[in-house]
Amino acid sequence: MNNDLRAHDSLEVMHDAPDTAGADARSQEATPAQRPAATGRAIVITSGKGGVGKTTVTANLGTALADAGRRVVVVDADVGLRNLDVVMGLENRVRRHSLDVIEERCTLDEALVRDRTRKTLSLLPAAQDREKDDMPLEGMQRLAADLRSRFDLVLIDCPAGIEHGFRNAVVGAQEAIIVTTPEVSAVRDADRVAGLLPHDMPVKLIINRIRPHLVKKGTMLTIDDVLDILRLELVGVVPDDKDVIVATNRGAAVVDIAGSPTGAAFRRIAARLLGEDVPIPELQDRSPWLQRMLSSLRRSRA
Fold first, then answer.
1. What is the mean pLDDT of the chain?
2. Which is nearest to 124 in space by CA: 104, 154, 103, 152?
């Protein structure tokens, strides 16, 4: 990746003049000196290209990090097209959203949705009946700081594209994880997004939905191919697995499926994000017979 491109295309728009809408209403808010210190880590999970699995990555990393004893909130930044609540099986519990908090129609506590089984995992939903342009950059930045004062980790699920929704998702983050699949178009978009991130922001890479048998046949990019193009720190490789579809349709986390290689990959990524030295295993191509046998074992355990 061209470092000059990253510096040149860095998000200058983040430093635009603050949004003045609702300034009178916000005058009653606590001043920055009165607010708790924002000590948590805010990580935006982005890609540029849609359909590479950002939302699934966000939900499962959040779950794995909560299981590791951290206080975690996952934030849906895709105003108008929210999906994170569905992936987490929380759609029936959503009453408020992030714009309600920013526009002072409710408190942050009223908008947060607690996970059904994990007390240290929460969701902040996006508005489904609003437009991405309705989200002010300053409001999102302030909201992210408030979340960092309450949680150890804030994972922001970035919408596809590089327009206003992308800028909103990035403005409150200190770190970034770029998700790509081993396809030329996805890798190209990942490279473009890396160039748009602030030049001093730490950026890590997750290669998602890799299929070892296609890599072996030469019809899918290898891990080394992707790294040669992007030149980012690799934090994890996630194999393609039908368990992801099953879990998503059930509103469950794939990390909870016993024996799932995808779930195990997400848990290893969470450990690396927490500073543990966990090697990235070499993905093995499984024969159809072995795949059928492992699927049968998983069903019997369930």
1. 86
2. 154
295 has a pLDDT exceeding 50: yes
**Structural domains for the chain:** 3-10+33-301 (3.40.50.300)
Contact 137, 16 (CB under 8 A): yes
Strands 233-239 and 153-157: unpaired
The token duo for 279 is 């090697």
Cβ atoms of 127 and 79 within 8 Å: the answer is: yes
pLDDT at position 36 is 66
> Pick from 189, 201, 203, 125: which is nearest to 160 by CA?
189
φ/ψ of 156, rounded to 5, equals -105, 115
DSSP conformation letters of 2-70? -HHHHHHTS-GGGGSPPP-TTHHHHTTSPPTTTSPP--SEEEEEE-SSTTSSHHHHHHHHHHHHHHTT-
Pairing of strands 121-124, 113-114: antiparallel
pLDDT digits 0-9 by tens, 118-139: 999 999 999 999 998 999 999 9
d(CA 132, CA 235) in angstroms, rounded, equals: 30
State the average pLDDT over residues 95-105.
97
Three-state SS for 105? coil
187-210: per-residue pLDDT in tens?
999 999 999 999 999 999 999 999
Q: Which residues contact 82 (CB under 8 A, 6 or more apart)?
A: 76, 97, 125, 126, 127, 128
* Vertex 53: Cα angle to 158 and 174 (nearest 5): 35
Q: Look up the pTM and report it.
A: 0.82
Mean pLDDT confidence for 214-237: 94
